[in-house]
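**Paired protein data**
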Amino acid sequence: MDATRIAVVGAGVVGMSTAMSIASMVPRCSVTVISDKFTPNTTSDVAAGILIPQAYPDTPVHTVKRWFRETFDHLSAIARSADAVDAGVHLVSGWQIFRSMPSEEVPFWADVVLGFRKMTETELKRFPQHVFGHAFTTLKCETSAYLPWLERRVRGTGNLLLTRRIEDLWELQPSFDIVVNCSGLGSQQLAGDSMVSPVRGQVLQVQAPWLKHFIRDVSGLTYIYPGASYVTLGGTKQKGDWNLSPDAEISRGIFSRCCTLEPSLRRAYAIKEKVGLRPSRLGVCLQKEIVSRGGQRLFVVHNYGHGSGGISVHWGSAMEATRLVNECIQDLRASATTSKL
């Protein structure tokens, strides 16, 4: 059988990491990443990039934890390598704080991050409106560096990046043997999935180089994530909102809430407003299917619906998508053998 032709639709962190995983783990294949938007114009470019996973009602916790551990281990290796600066991956320590006692004091991911512990009374005095908290070290993935780095890695193995808007996955048949759908919100149309919907996130990117520790209110609506190039202040979770234009009133609210947690932010400068639409779903769609039309068929692997947790589990879900691609290749070869007989 000739080299398997694989198309990955979508060039955010899920799409690019899936392309890289396939290119490195699937023998005798060619990979083409197809998207109407590449970095710096993807939703992933707006993401703060902190590795703190979310739970999904329709995805088992042990599955999410496996994806998170695989992602954490993968990025940890990059953070220890000579590629760390170019890839924009580094360790960051900080606090996750609660206004009331949580039902579970230890989250499912506590043994994956480094040095997880409960905050001391002395630490909590910094946040008088909060009664409980976690201290730990995790990873920060600067998407403004990580996405270009992924693109270079994918291209470096002889694969292609193609700017094109796809209206129907069937357009890619017969040019490709397998299509991997990492289109996020685009899956409303491409997969006919009404379960995936936008959750609007607005953030501020500011210069405050003296800040080194992250602070995250567990509500997810107020957070301060220092990075190598800027500090990300957030945020919002506006369900069903497709508006990509920044809202000045929301920006003022974000800045005010973050300054309450960290008063030194009042000296922040070079403030930029950013908006992204998270592809939210009750559970991540990670599965394979065969699409048939007019006696022809197309193998499709879906990998989308990660919501705000995409960065935290992207490599783990990419590895699972790669396993599904390998299963599709086995089916293709079995079909080729049968047709010859």
